[in-house]
């Protein structure tokens, strides 16, 4: 099995060769059987398709023959009808008109009137689309309006070849050559026959049947008058095509000038009678019985093929089930032995194997590689705050983010907890590759992690220590130790950073443990000392690592001259060699060493002792970690400190982070309820930067909201800051909750926040964190004015 994103593969042991051979042999036999069955079904399907195709071709050819015969029949019918019409006119109308005599002008008028009557009779009685009476030169001999004359001028050149046809000039029989034998038999019985001619042609861009017949002729021995002809026009793309479609069963028949038939249509070409040139196409959807049969047969064949395939599949599964179980068991055992169950990443053992392989392959080559150790920052706080389910989810999400950045040949392994290891192969230009990868990983881990289906958001970050091979040697143990040293340097640099090992870091391997032990000594010394001075204790003979101090940053009322209403207690470590250390330098060490509870208890006790000497209308605020809240006896410890110091509970304010309340833990609720029952105030620190659930304000009876300094810094630069602060203040006012704005550094921010309605203000504009001995505002009433002049840039 190969983990995604990892370059090395796990080789199946030789003991599985027999299993592989059995698997292949049984698979070949079943494959041949399956191919035979499917081949038989394939032949049946191909035979059905061939038969259906042949049937469709025969049906289509028959439809085309029927259409051709029907068109010829319509042409012959036109010739027959106008021939009969001409015969009747010559027998009755023409002799009567000829016997009237008269002048030539009167004859011309009568001829035109008679022509119009003949034209109208042909159109109304026989349903022709157009009828004209003309002479031998195709000149109109009828009364016609301007539109008809204009239309005839366009048609005239096409009529001339018909009028000059020899079959209209002499009397050689009863019918034209194009008249079918059935027509000839009928016309042979006529007492007086006339010659008629009908052709297919393109007229006005449309397929048309044009018929011509002579309608006057002199008797034998008489002078031949000007010959007159009747020309009739019938378009076959309108009503005639609809009739043809109904008679022949042509679905959706239409006329097209080009063969633009769709995929499911056919086109029949219409040719002119005279010269065989294409006139257009009749397009229709053919009736294909073969396709219908195939359409009905294919579902049955498909079902049969599916049933056979299922039967073969069941047979394959049954025959190979035992082998499959054996294979799964083997792969699962290797997976458990060499991979992490939570993330499916290689574990410590597989990482060691790949690391040794890397060292062996690059022993005599110039290839450069790198090993990196990675820790998630503040992971313990996430576990304590959100629970182990959220911690596991965070580990999986972090692994996915890291894996998405690595190259295909890199290895990511989980060593345990929140510890990961990276093996980066073939980093030719490590000055560019390493920074790119490490910075990308740090950036990804610095982004928020949505946990518990979006109900919580965690911000952790990560620190990375890197060792380059062979710069740091080729011994695996030494390389891992150097990477651990670099990781410690990254954490000491403020976390969220990465460091490459250098010889100058050597000797600092145990710096973290040293700092942890020093803090333990300092904390033990502080816990055994009294408020007035140190007691005689054997620990006094131990090395001096400095002492813990509590600094205080005052909180000021937003009205009444901005007088001090209280102060926040902040711990500092005055190290004998390192100087003054801020919490960021030693709080992580305290968390790792399990010293955070003792440290928090000491700060609480010192703050309560100091606040007893302040005015009665002031308070002291102390930060409480999530781990302290989850201690079952935390409330009793707080009550014991208040009783020992004599500070009224109402003057103590415990500051919680929003993450402390994310996990709806009944124990936390009980602790807070017990604290508030004694009058202790509860405030929510850095409101708006974490998981801000408004229900917490009501459920846990929060007394104060502390607006984070990141919002205050936006005042005067972005409108968003004022809008957010205004919304928080309005919410707090409606709920009866006090508000303290942190990070006030300018007079503008002070005045603006006071105008918005904040009840208290805190920041360098009023005071930086100072030791208790420098906290003069509670002793001298005029000191408030002096504190306002402290430079905003003072560093805590």
Task: Give structural notes.
It is built from 22 helices and 24 strands. Helices cover 47% and strands 18% of the residues. The strands form five sheets. Strands 15-16-18-19-20-21-22-23 form an eight-stranded mixed barrel, surrounded by five helices. Helix 1 runs antiparallel to helix 6 and helix 14 packs parallel to helix 16. Helix 18 links the parallel strand 20 and strand 21.
Largest beta sheet: what is the strand line-up?
15-16-18-19-20-21-22-23
Q: Beta fraction of the residues?
A: 15-25%
Radius of gyration: 53 Å
Assembly context of the chains? single chain
Range of helix content: 40-55%
Based on CA inertia axes, which overall geometry fits? elongated
Structural class assignment: alpha/beta
Q: Write down how many β-strands occur, each being a DSSP E stretch of 2 or more residues.
A: 24
Estimate the mean pLDDT confidence.
77
Summary of the model, kept short:
The chain is 47% helix and 18% strand.
Blueprint (SSEs and pairs):
Layout: H1 17-99, H2 104-126, E1 130-134, H3 146-163, H4 181-187, E2 196-203, E3 206-214, E4 229-235, H5 239-248, E5 251-256, E6 266-271, E7 278-285, H6 289-338, H7 348-361, E8 369-376, H8 379-386, H9 388-405, E9 411-416, E10 419-424, H10 430-445, E11 449-451, E12 456-458, E13 462-469, H11 476-492, E14 498-500, H12 511-528, E15 547-557, E16 564-575, E17 579-581, H13 583-592, H14 596-611, E18 619-623, H15 626-629, H16 634-645, E19 652-657, H17 666-677, E20 681-687, H18 694-699, E21 704-707, H19 709-712, H20 719-735, E22 738-741, H21 747-756, E23 760-761, E24 770-771, H22 783-787
Parallel strand pairs: 13-14, 16-18, 18-19, 19-20, 20-21, 21-22, 22-23
Antiparallel strand pairs: 1-4, 2-3, 3-4, 5-7, 6-7, 8-10, 8-13, 9-10, 11-12, 15-16, 15-23, 15-24, 16-17
Helix pairs in contact: 1-6, 8-9, 9-10, 12-13, 14-16, 16-17
């Amino acid at each position: 099995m190969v983990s995604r994103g990892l370059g090395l593969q796990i080789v199946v042991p030789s003991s599985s060769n027999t299993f592989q051979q059995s698997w292949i042999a049984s698979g070949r036999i079943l494959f041949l059987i399956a191919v035979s069955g499917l081949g038989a079904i394939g032949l049946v399907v191909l035979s059905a398709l061939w038969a259906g195709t042949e049937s469709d071709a025969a049906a289509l050819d028959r439809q085309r023959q029927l259409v051709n015969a029907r068109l010829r029949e319509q042409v012959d019918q036109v010739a027959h009808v106008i021939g009969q019409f001409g015969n009747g006119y010559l027998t009755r109308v023409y002799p009567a008109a000829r016997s009237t005599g008269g002048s030539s002008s009167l004859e011309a008028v009568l001829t035109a009137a008679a022509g119009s009557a003949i034209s109208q009779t042909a159109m109304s009685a026989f349903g022709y689309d157009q009828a004209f009476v003309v002479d031998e030169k195709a000149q109109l001999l009828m009364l016609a309006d301007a539109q008809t004359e204009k239309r005839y001028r366009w048609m005239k050149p096409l009529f001339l070849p018909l009028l000059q046809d020899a079959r209209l000039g002499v009397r050689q029989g009863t019918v034209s050559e194009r008249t079918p034998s059935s027509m000839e038999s009928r016309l042979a019985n006529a007492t007086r026959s006339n010659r008629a001619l009908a052709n297919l042609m393109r007229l006005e861009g449309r397929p048309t049947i044009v018929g011509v017949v002579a309608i006057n002729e002199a008797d034998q021995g008489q002078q031949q008058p000007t010959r007159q002809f009747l020309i009739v026009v019938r378009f076959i793309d309108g009503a005639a095509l609809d009739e043809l479609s109904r008679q022949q069963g042509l679905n959706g028949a239409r006329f097209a000038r080009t063969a633009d038939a769709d995929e499911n249509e056919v086109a029949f070409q219409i040719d002119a009678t005279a010269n065989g040139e294409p006139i257009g196409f009749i397009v229709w959807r053919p009736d294909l019985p073969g396709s219908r049969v195939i359409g009905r047969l294919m579902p049955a064949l498909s079902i049969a093929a599916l049933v056979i395939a299922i039967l073969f599949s069941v047979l394959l599964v049954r025959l190979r089930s035992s082998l499959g179980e054996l294979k799964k068991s083997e792969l699962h055992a290797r997976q458990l032995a060499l991979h992490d169950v939570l993330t499916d990443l290689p574990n410590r053992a597989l990482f060691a194997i790949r690391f040794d392989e890397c060292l062996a392959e690059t022993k005599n080559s110039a290839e450069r590689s790198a090993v990196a150790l990675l820790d998630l920052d503040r992971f313990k706080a996430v576990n304590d705050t959100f629970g182990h389910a959220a911690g596991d989810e965070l580990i999986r999400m972090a692994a996915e983010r890291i894996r998405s950045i690595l190259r295909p040949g890199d290895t990511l392994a989980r060593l345990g907890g929140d510890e990961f290891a990276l093996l980066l192969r073939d980093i030719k230009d490590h000055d560019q590759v390493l920074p790119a990868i490490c910075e990308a990983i740090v950036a990804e881990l610095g982004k928020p992690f949505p946990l518990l289906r979006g109900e919580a958001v965690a911000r952790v970050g990560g620190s990375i220590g890197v060792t380059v091979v062979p710069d740091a040697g080729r011994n695996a143990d030494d390389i891992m130790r150097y990477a651990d040293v670099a990781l410690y340097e990254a954490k000491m640099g403020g976390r969220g950073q990465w460091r490459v090992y250098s010889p100058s870091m050597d000797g600092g391997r145990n710096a973290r443990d040293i700092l942890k032990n020093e803090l333990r000594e300092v904390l033990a010394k502080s816990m055994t000392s009294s408020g007035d001075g140190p007691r005689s204790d054997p620990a006094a003979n131990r090395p001096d690592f400095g002492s813990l101090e509590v600094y205080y940053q005052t909180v000021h009322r937003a009205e009444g001259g901005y007088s001090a209403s209280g102060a926040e207690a902040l711990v500092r470590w005055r190290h004998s060699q390192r100087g003054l250390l801020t919490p960021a330098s030693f709080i992580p060490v305290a968390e790792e060493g399990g010293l955070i509870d003792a440290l928090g208890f000491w700060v609480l006790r010192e703050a309560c002792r100091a606040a007893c000497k302040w005015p009665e209308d002031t308070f002291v605020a102390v930060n409480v970690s999530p781990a302290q809240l989850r201690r079952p006896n935390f409330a009793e410890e707080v009550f014991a400190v208040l009783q020992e110091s004599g500070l009224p509970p109402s003057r103590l304010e415990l500051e919680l982070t929003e993450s402390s309340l994310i996990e709806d833990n009944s124990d936390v609720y009980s602790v807070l309820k017990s604290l508030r029952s004694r009058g202790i105030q509860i405030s929510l620190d850095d409101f708006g930067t974490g998981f801000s659930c408004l229900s917490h304000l009501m459920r846990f009876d929060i007394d104060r909201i502390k607006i984070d300094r990141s919002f205050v810094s936006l005042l005067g630069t972005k409108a968003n800051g004022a809008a957010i602060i205004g919304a928080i203040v309005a919410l707090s006012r409606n709920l009866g909750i006090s508000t303290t704005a942190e990070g006030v550094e300018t007079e503008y921010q002070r005045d603006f926040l006071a105008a918005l309605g904040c009840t208290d203000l805190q920041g360098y504009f009023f005071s930086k964190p100072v030791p208790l001995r420098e906290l003069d505002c509670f002793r001298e009433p005029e000191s408030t004015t002096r504190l306002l002049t402290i430079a905003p840039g003072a560093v805590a």
